[in-house]
Amino acid sequence: QVQLVESGGGLVQTGGSLRLSCVASGRTFSNYAMNWFRQAPGKEREFVAAVSGSGTFTVYADSVKGRFTMSRDNAKSTVYLQMNSLKPEDTAVYFCARSRTYGRISAASVGSWGQGTQVTVSS
C-alpha cells in the first residue's frame, strides 16, 4: 500500500502564496496520475488539479485555473501544488491522491489518499 505524505500547508493572507508537497512511497510512482483534492468544512471533497504519470499533462478545476500550478518530480516521487493569488474560498484541507486515471476525476476514482494538510487564507 502506497503512503502519501503532504506538507506545506499553513495560514496566509489573501493574495499570498503557498507551495504544497506530497511524497509517495513505493517504486511505481510514474505509473500513476497524481491529484490534489480539497475539502472545506461542511462541503464535499472536490477535485483541484491532476498531473499525468509522465508529468506532461496537467488539468485544473475552473476555480483555480491560472492561479495554481501542479507539477511532479518522478525522481523524487514527489508532486507539488504551487498556489498563488490565494482567496479565502481556497481555505480547506488539501489532500494528495493517487489514481490510475488521469483527468478531472471524482473522489470515488481515487485509489490512495494522503492524510491532508490545512490551508487557511485570511481576508
* Shape designation: globular
Low-pLDDT regions: none
The number of helical runs is 0
If you compute it from the alpha carbons, what radius of gyration comes out, rounded to the nearest whole angstrom? 13 Å
Percent helix, as a range, is under 10%
Give the total of beta strands. 11
**What does the largest sheet look like?**
7 strands, mixed
- Kindly report the oligomeric state of this protein: single chain
**What proportion of the residues form beta strands (DSSP E)?**
over 45%
User: What structural class do the secondary elements suggest?
Assistant: mainly beta
What is the mean predicted local confidence, pLDDT?
97
SSE series: EEEEEEEEEEE
Distance between the termini: 39 Å
Overview in brief:
With 123 residues, the chain is mainly beta.
Walk me through this protein's architecture.
The chain is mainly β. Helix content is 0%, strand content 48%. The protein has strands spanning 4-7, 10-13, 18-24, 33-39, 46-51, 58-60, 68-73, 78-83, 92-99, 112-113, 117-122. The strands form two sheets. Strands 2, 4, 5, 6, 9, 10 and 11 form a seven-stranded mixed β-sheet that branches. A four-stranded antiparallel β-sheet has the order 1-3-8-7, with no helix packed on it. The radius of gyration is 13 Å and the shape is globular.
Which characteristics define this entry?
seven-stranded mixed beta sheet, 123 residues, single chain, mainly beta
What are the SSEs and their pairings?
Layout: E1 4-7, E2 10-13, E3 18-24, E4 33-39, E5 46-51, E6 58-60, E7 68-73, E8 78-83, E9 92-99, E10 112-113, E11 117-122
